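Section 3.1: Structural characterization of target chains.
Under the original work plan, the team committed to producing a structural model for every single-chain target entering the pipeline before any wet-lab resources were allocated. The record below documents one such target. The sequence was received from the expression subgroup and is listed exactly as submitted; it comprises 266 residues.
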Amino acid sequence: MPEEMQDWKQHTVPVDGTSLLVIRGGKGRPLLVLHDELGHPGWLNWHRDLARDRELIVPLHPGFGLTARAEWIWNIRDLAGFYARLLGEQKLVPIDVIGFSLGGWIAAEMAAANPNQFKRIVLVAPLGIRPPEGKGELLDIFHMFPPAQLAATVLDPDNTPEFDRLYGGIRPEAFELWEDARAETARLAWAPFLHNPSLPHLLGVIADLPSLLIWGRQDAVSPLGAGEVYNKAITGSKLVVLDKCGHRPEVERTGEFLREVRNFLS
């Protein structure tokens, strides 16, 4: 059995009639991990490192291939409400959370609706906010084939550790799951495109919630300009910008990423 398969277990949790698949691994205080718009990327080195002293709880979003779609979920705010119910029913409130891209947007919507769900929040290059004019544009991921979209998430695919391990590698069997994830992302976030115009205003309520933002300076998916808006909207938040890094600091700058996350969560 591959080493990574020994680090986690997958089980099913019922939430409002949906059988939610959840991956759990590690030991220690629980840490909710919300994956990005291409689905759960696999159990990578950063997961394994954080799992040494935290229990990672990774739900696989409804409609993203492995968990069936919940038809009542029509937008990201609905999905945020779904996860709020999960946390309440599993008696996980308050919990630390880390969200990546679409998962970061979900976490931000959850915090805006009820900051008391969380102890600390880490948003890694989240979608959900459009950069100001002149500060870049959200990448139009739906005009790309999945492999091209994946390649666009890092600055240098050929020199990115673990790039060939993301989502089990670019294999034919991964394409169906990618397309499921992209279709559900489009259903939930097509209009307005990958953002909520209200979100910068709603985030004002989480001023007292310790918040860390991590961004790659060369992010081509959610440009750094969006990070600056997040940083301004969340009073007291810390914005960490990593140089020579795209949309995936956790695999492009794993050491720096882990240091920042560990220091913050401790």
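The beta strands are 8-15, 18-26, 29-34, 54-59, 95-100, 118-124, 211-216, 238-242.
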